[in-house]
Design brief:
CATH topology: Peptide Methionine Sulfoxide Reductase, Chain A
Largest sheet: 6 strands, mixed
Distance between the termini: 18 Å
Radius of gyration: 15 Å
CATH superfamily: Peptide methionine sulphoxide reductase MsrA
Number of strands: 8
Order of helices and strands: EHEHEHEEEHEEHH
Structural class: alpha+beta
Strand content: 15-25%
CATH architecture: 2-Layer Sandwich
CATH class: Alpha Beta
Number of helices: 6
Number of domains: 1
């Protein structure tokens, strides 16, 4: 059965490329969510005028991949302990956020984060926001499949390629 999940963990290009590696993921769309402006543009989001985060909306086959599997990969490929920052990307649009689609996802992400905290998975506390998805706005075409379309761009080789490699190594049994 097809389901959706929405995550933000820095630049959407990074999260998109990492999650596209997984068996069971049928689509990953870069976009904006978590703010209060309808139909924001990339420029508006980057200025911090909208309250939105750069996010990805993942469509996946629940028979092949669980929501918890997605959470595990998401929390592996970004730092959920930094406020408004991932690597070189700084600003509220780069915050760590999980936007749940229903109560089941909310309960699963809250339990997942609690378990990570309980076992001290990170040196610092997790600051990932957990909020209901109230709207998702697809990013402009040039932001879709960015890594696939620009693998040799400097940002891609320095920031995205290591995340993709990490997924391929740590989650080899789940990679397409």
């Amino acid at each position: 059965m097809s389901k959706q999940a929405t995550f933000g963990g820095g630049c959407f290009w990074c999260i998109e490329a990492a999650l596209e590696e997984l068996d069971g993921v049928t689509d990953v769309t870069s976009g904006y969510a978590g703010g209060d402006t309808e139909n924001p543009t990339y420029r508006e989001v980057c200025r911090g005028d909208t309250g939105h985060a750069e996010v990805v909306q993942v469509t996946y086959d629940e028979d092949e991949l669980s929501y918890e599997d997605l959470l595990e990969v998401f929390f592996t490929v970004h730092d959920p302990t930094t406020v408004n920052r991932q690597g070189p990307d700084v600003g509220s649009q780069y915050r760590s956020i999980v936007l749940y689609h229903d109560d089941e996802q909310r309960e699963l992400v809250e339990a997942f984060v609690a378990e990570l905290e309980e076992r001290d998975a990170f040196e610092d506390s997790i600051v990932t926001e957990v909020e209901p998805l109230e709207g998702f706005y697809e990013a402009e075409d040039e932001h879709q499949n960015y890594y696939e379309n620009n693998p040799d761009a400097a940002y891609c080789t320095v920031n995205i390629a290591p995340k993709v490699s990490k997924v391929r190594e740590q989650f080899a049994e789940q990679v397409q």
